[in-house]
Amino acid sequence: MEPIRSRANARLKAARKLQAKRNRLTAGLFLAEGEDIVEEALAAGILPAESFLAAGRPPDAALAARLERGGPVHLVADDLLAELGSLGHPARVIAVFRIGDLPARAGGDLGVHLHRVIDPGNVGTVVRAAGALGPAFLSLSPGCSDPLSGKGVRASMGAVFRVAVDHGEAPPEGLRRVALVPAAERSLWQVDLRSPTVFVVGAERHGLPEELVSSADEVAAIPQAAGAESLNAAAAATVALYEAVRQRAAPG
Amino acid sequence: MEPIRSRANARLKAARKLQAKRNRLTAGLFLAEGEDIVEEALAAGILPAESFLAAGRPPDAALAARLERGGPVHLVADDLLAELGSLGHPARVIAVFRIGDLPARAGGDLGVHLHRVIDPGNVGTVVRAAGALGPAFLSLSPGCSDPLSGKGVRASMGAVFRVAVDHGEAPPEGLRRVALVPAAERSLWQVDLRSPTVFVVGAERHGLPEELVSSADEVAAIPQAAGAESLNAAAAATVALYEAVRQRAAPG
Predict the structure, then answer these.
(1) Chain A contact for B232, CB < 8 A?
(2) B78 in Cβ contact with B2 (< 8 Å)
(3) Residue B88 has pLDDT above 80, yes or no
(4) Which fold, A110-249?
(5) Which helix (H) or strand (E) covers residue B37, if one does?
(6) What kind of fold does domain B10-101 have according to CATH?
(7) Which of A76, A79, A123, B92 has the smallest number of Cβ neighbours within 10 A?
(8) What is the pLDDT of residue A205?
(9) pLDDT at A148
(10) Are A232 and B234 in contact (CB under 8 A)?
């Protein structure tokens, strides 16, 4: 197979467009970089629509064969593949996946709603925590960073392929809403988290707007040392998911 | 005051050298970028040895006056200040602090020992969590990323000025060692963390070496969903510190 050596190659151009959120939404596609992340997709039963491999240092042939079950596999000159990616250390493989193949929320009794968390690493880290400590679903307000950005997919370590992500100004209905507020009187462990629960978490600097706090069923704090900067959104969400898992494993 | 406009300026050159760990250790100095981080230092009672302000958009005069109590304050052409920094979005202030002014560990009944965690963001995030959820001390094995790197100080959100950091191949003596191992039989919440405790945490891919696991007093898991990538070192350490705080607040 002759590698793609031109930046103007139509397949490569189409893939490069997916670096912009607007184009991801239009095309219904996104990029995942790196063998470890692509393996997470395959492990979740999700095949790529198309794959690009580094011509100079391709991943092993068995992986290429598995990717080919999903769609065309192209060899690409290493420098052009690096341009398609977003990592400092270029990946050997970048694959295009369909947003429609990602899991949809079907109920679920544990979730996190993020309010205007703009840092892609933070959003990706919450996706990862939701995959590890749940599984939990994620709900994102407008203004949150897109978990399908290059940095978001990387920070999730591939958990985007297993965690259902909803979008909405408010958390989904039908679950108890527990808002995390650093100054709340009740500590997180004093709140019963055994019934279906969605945590409501704001960005560190701006916190949650009054309407999200007042519409919550419970307001809880993760108690912190005097004078400390509060935990960031990802750390707060991770601790909250852990506390729910703990309470549900050891009722009492 | 005439701003520094030459890259060859001796003060600026000396400060730029502090971007390398070797030079930080030789000089006993490190850099902190951004008004929020510098404010954390001042709040902890630590004054800079020297400060550099963006000539084109200096921070407010009151901050400059407070920095001057520590040592000389220089105005610097914005592009030269950006070169001294490590942030995508350049800071208005970069200050030089003395490593010897940072808090030293004096006992402490809660800590985290990191084993060969090379990611600067992860190490800085653990420093931040130790500041927020303790206060706890940190112990770093050889091979860990330097928490006084630009990225480390930034990720700590200034908690480096309040958290004592030790260095050693093993955790300090005199505390119960609780090693976090994803496959451990006991869950973290089943381990009594109310006596003086140091958590032992490895890097996500490589985990902990056998000797650190076998020398631990307890081995505990943060239970995770089947098939999930494990939590990263920063998330695991944050959850562990939370669990210790929870048990100590609500004994029984």
Answers:
(1) yes
(2) no
(3) no
(4) Alpha/beta knot (3.40.1280)
(5) helix B35-43
(6) 60s Ribosomal Protein L30; Chain: A; (3.30.1330)
(7) A79
(8) 73
(9) 97
(10) no
